[in-house]
From TrEMBL:
UniProt keyword terms in alphabetical order: Cell membrane, G-protein coupled receptor, Membrane, Olfaction, Receptor, Sensory transduction, Transducer, Transmembrane, Transmembrane helix
Pfam families: 7tm_4
Location in the cell: Cell membrane; Membrane
Protein name, per record: Olfactory receptor
Length: 314
């Protein structure tokens, strides 16, 4: 039985780089990235909320995906950006555990929402006549609630496993945020069993959801073979954005969590894809390839300009 002996009150991040000049450049780049993430995803959320035309389940799920992206990046990005200018990149033990919880809570919730979005596309394309009866507002709400609950339970398991580990030192984490694998490397006990549980928990969730997504899109592609070229083109255009996001998010995520804990320093570079790059690209991917979204944004923008000009005249 593991004793909860903890001589470590704080952890020190080694960050992405130790080069001072490179850190200043990274500060500017990642600050810009984070602003794009927040503003871009907020724009999608606002557009879906205020546009009466974007009332389908697809946009309902997209608004929640954008909200989760903001929360997910906000758990790691602000701390990473501040640390680029900090002489010593420290985080308290409690802060580290809180960050670990947030990363897995929002990350797992995003995995489930992306899976739900694939199911929505499957029903819309393969069973169009039953779409409105299957994907009701109540069912969509329950799916989103189940995604949040699943993310919470997954994160709770990660916390309960990690917080019981004894940390006697050293306290340097070769990463830019607190994650399970780097913390297992610092624990002063045998973490083999915990590592297996982490792979079974995090890795299998990512891999199984990814396989479900792959199968669903294979079924969709097979089904589209019998459709007209115009119908096929329209259906593929709605799926292409989602497939792109799935590949960008699930690829690095599955690579990180499907294998046992190891001293793989490139993990932090891989982690940038699912904590920063994908949340930043999501607004661009879903808007540039979606005429409905672009038209709704134009109308929302023109409406705001109209109201602001009316107020100035009064």
């Amino acid at each position: 039985m593991m004793q909860n002996i903890n001589n470590v009150t704080e952890f020190v991040f080694l960050g992405l780089t130790q080069n001072d000049e490179l850190q200043k450049i990274c500060f500017v780049i990642f600050l810009f990235f984070y602003l794009v993430i927040v503003l871009g995803n907020l724009l999608i959320v606002a557009t879906v909320i205020f546009s009466s035309r974007l009332n389908s389940p697809m946009y309902f799920f997209l608004s929640y995906l954008s909200f989760v992206d903001i929360c997910y990046s906000s758990v790691t990005a602000p701390k990473m950006i501040v640390d680029f200018l900090a002489e010593k990149k420290t985080i308290s033990f409690i802060g580290c555990i809180a960050q670990l919880f947030g990363v897995h809570f929002f990350g797992c919730t995003e995995i489930f929402i992306l899976t739900v979005m694939a199911y929505d596309r499957y029903i819309a394309i393969c069973k169009p006549l039953h779409y409105t009866t299957i994907m009701t507002k109540r069912i969509c709400g329950q799916m989103v609630a189940a995604s949040w609950f699943g993310g919470f339970m997954h994160s709770l398991v990660q916390i309960l496993m990690t917080i019981r580990l004894p940390f006697c030192g050293p306290n340097e984490i070769d990463h830019y945020f607190c994650d399970v694998h780097p913390l297992l490397q610092l624990a002063c006990t045998d973490t083999y069993i915990v590592g297996i549980i982490v792979v079974a928990n995090s890795g299998m969730i990512a891999l199984s959801c990814f396989l479900i997504l792959v199968v669903s899109y294979i079924v969709i592609l097979v089904f589209l073979r019998s459709r007209s070229s115009e119908g096929r083109r329209k259906a593929l255009s709605t799926c292409a954005s989602h497939i792109t996001v799935v590949i960008l998010f699930f690829g690095p995520c599955t690579f990180t969590y499907i294998r046992p804990s190891s001293n793989f320093s490139e993990d932090k570079t891989v982690a940038l894809f699912y904590t920063v790059v994908t949340p930043m690209l999501n607004p661009l991917i879903y808007t540039l390839r979606n005429e409905e979204m672009k038209n709704a944004m134009r109308k929302l923008w023109s409406r705001k300009i109209f109201f602001s000009s009316e107020k100035t005249k009064m």
